[in-house]
Structures are given as structure tokens and as C-alpha cells.
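Convert to structure. Protein one:
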Amino acid sequence: MRVLLASASLFLVLTPALPAQGTPTAKADSLQWGPAPAVFPAGAKMAVVSGDPSKPGPFVIQLAMPDGYRLAPHFHPTAETVEVKQGTFLYAMGDTFDLAKTKPMNVGEKGSIPANVHHYATAKGATVVAVTSTGPFALTYVNPADNPQQPAAKP
């Protein structure tokens, strides 16, 4: 299994607006999609497949990202497994985003990353990944300035 970072480390201190849907084999068109939680950069959409990422226990979500979407270096307190459902998911380990160091994961490929390992990712083409992990979900950016929930620095 490839080591991967997805971030769809991916994800979620889910909002109540995204209730659990179906089973881990649910079809993407039957899922209830909404904006990804605020811990993710704007532009991604998310659907809960099973479980509740905001509570203790297993969960599965799908994260849809537009072409070029980036997840800055980050880590999670729990391990995660990512499976590419659509597009190409590029990932790498480390504290600094470097596109040249990313490795591709294509449709059908899966990879896992242990808890607390620093990683980053980007989407090549419209990309959807399924992320399996254990809640409660948490995502910590290596550089706090990358957190989209932080107020912009004042000049």
C-alpha cells in the first residue's frame, strides 16, 4: 500500500449540515454534497459516506476537489486511508509544499498514512477521494498561516 497523505487529510470537523449517508460503497451521485468544513481551503466539497467525523469512531467521507486544489502541509492525530475515485491525487510528505516531490495516485489506488505524519496534496484535474479514518477528525497545519480559519495577517 502506498503511503499517502491526503488530506482529504481530509477532513472534517464536520458540520451538522452534512449528515451520514448510506454505506462506504455508496455511489457519489447518491451522496449529499456540501462545502468542505472551514479547515479546508475554499473550493472543495465533501460528503459523509458513513459514521460521523465529529465523534469518536470510524468514518468515511468523500472529498471533491477542483483542478489545482492544494492542501498545505498538515497532519492528523489518527491514521487515514485514501482511495482515489476520480482524477489524479498528487501527494508528498514534508513540511514545505513542493509540487516536484509529489507522487500521483490514480483512480482505484489506495494509500495510508500513519497518525501525525506531515504531508500535503494537490488535485490534477477534478479529483474525488474517499477518506477512511477514526474520529473525531482533526487537521493541524504545519504552518499556522496556512489555516484558512485564521484571520488574515494585517500589514
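Protein two, convert as well:
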Amino acid sequence: MKTKEQTHAFLAERSMVDLSKSGKKKATGKQFNYEKEDETTRKGIDEARRAEWLKWEKFMAVRPIEGEGLQQLLREGYTPIGTQWIDTDKHLHLKRPGVTHKPEYKSRSVALGNQETTLGIRTGSPTADLDSVNMILSWASSEKLRLMALDITNAYFHGETMDRLMILKPPRGGIPIAGYNPDRMYVCRTPIYGSRDSGRLFWKRLRKESIAAGLTASKLSSALFTSQEMESQKL
């Protein structure tokens, strides 16, 4: 068994955490500072940002607005919300001293939720609690079943259509696509990462689609759905 000091050294060596004298963990090296990176890193980040924005366009997450249409909304009192790029390396955990490290750049544009002023919106979204997960694992183990899992690409973009008007400013550094206009803003159509109710709007869509597919929502756990198919047997 590793000692506490050995564990700390193991994590620090791999740039996973930075442990201060107080023993608190601090994330380090997880997010790039674009302005301070070298040309090669910036090029990789630009490609990741472009790939991310293409997903925004693919799912029609926002609608561009500019000119008189934008000015009319601003005169009506709508306040644009800022956005920012979050640039990371998905291969950071593979970084080792003395070993050539090839980053896999990942970028995500998120809304600055602290700038939202909309009042009265519900933000809660159920998630599967530990008891639900343990129950599934116990059942699968007793029945000798193999479990499967999946991830939803750009999950929030699949959420319910937003029922309020939210205008986004482009992120600092712009959007690396042809024809980019720095004076253009964007009206949200779907939930956006960072907005206060994005999780709830995704949950509402997930629940609606799950029930439509024939699943039954658990009365004990709102995020647990089951399917029971029973065949009648003739005696």
C-alpha cells in the first residue's frame, strides 16, 4: 500500500493535481492560456475550436443575429451574456517525464452563467443517485448480465428548445471559421453549456423521449427508467 507522500508524488508527477502545504488539491495544467501558448499549441487549439463550433452549427444550437435586428433587441433591454473558450488536453493524463507527449486538444465554448439575470427559472435536474446505481449493479451481478453504457454527444444541444430569449456574445479570441464577424451575436435555440437551466432542459427532453420509447420512470428515483417486457404463457 502506498503512503500518503507516495500517492501525492505519483499524482504530482503526472500533472494531475498540485498539493499545497495545507493538503488541499488544486487543479493544474488542465486548461490552456491561449495568449501564452506557442504557435504549435495555438494551431491545435484553433482546430479544436473550429471543430467545436461546427457542432454548434450542426445541432443549430444558436442563430446568428446582427445589424438592425440585434440593435432592436438591445433597445428592448435584452442584455447579451458573455462566453468563453475552455481549451484542454484530453491526453494530459498520459503525460510522463521523459516521454514524448502528443496532446489531443479539446475546446468548448460556454456561457458565463454568472452574468445571467433571468429570474424565476427552474435549474434543478435529477441525476441517478448512488442507490440506483448500486441496485442496477447488484441485479446485473445476480443475473450474470453484462452491462452496457453510452455517452450522448453534445448532450445539452439535444435538450428542450429554450423558452426564453438569451443572446450570447462571441468568446474572446473569436470563432476560427470563414466569414467570422466579431460584431455578430447569437440567439440560443437549445441549452448551452454554462447556462443556468441547461441541465434541466436536457433532463426534460430525456424524460419525454424515454417515456415515449416505452420506459417507465421510477417512483423512487426520478432519473431511473425501467423497461419490463412480459410474455403471457399458456398453461
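Helices lie at 4-13, 39-58, 67-75, 130-142, 198-212. The CA atoms of residues 57 and 63 lie 9 Å apart.
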